Amino acid sequence: MGAYNRVHVEIRGRTFNLLADDSAQYLMGIAGMVDERMKQVMEHNPQLNFEKAALLTALNFCDDLEKNKLQKKSGQESSEDHIREQVMEYAKELEKATDVIKNLEKELERVKSENNEQLEKLRREYEIKEKEILEMIDSM
């Protein structure tokens, strides 16, 4: 830890001495936020003494902090849900593409088979014609 800073701050007319490793400017900013929030609490509840107003202010800050955490978590879950949906969508598209590839491979095999059959048929016809021509030549 670094050196500690000692800062005198005023909250609702009372002076407090703070000792922390944060900068003096940061500590004064935090104290200013507490002073402003406590002012709002006391304006809405004039019957509160300093201690009760301080406690209510602390509860309000904790409430805000917790709500922000929940909102952040909800936002992360929402993002995670969105990513899961995208992954599922991509998986479906991949499955469709895989099916298309399989069908195209089957079609390619069918066409190759037909071509081989045609080639074999043409070879047989060629052999027959060649024999006929040779027989005609021999008979002359």
From TrEMBL:
Compartments, as annotated in UniProt: Cytoplasm
Biological processes, Gene Ontology terms: division septum assembly; FtsZ-dependent cytokinesis; septin ring assembly
UniProt xrefs under SUPFAM superfamilies: Cell division protein ZapA-like
GO CC terms of this entry: cell division site; cell septum; cytosol
Pfam entry (one): ZapA
Keyword line: Cell cycle, Cell division, Coiled coil, Cytoplasm, Septation
Regions annotated as coiled coil: 87-139
Annotated function: Activator of cell division through the inhibition of FtsZ GTPase activity, therefore promoting FtsZ assembly into bundles of protofilaments necessary for the formation of the division Z ring. It is recruited early at mid-cell but it is not essential for cell division.
Subunit structure, as described in the record: Homodimer. Interacts with FtsZ.
Entries under PANTHER family matching the protein: CELL DIVISION PROTEIN ZAPA (PTHR34981)
Name of the protein in its database record: Cell division protein ZapA
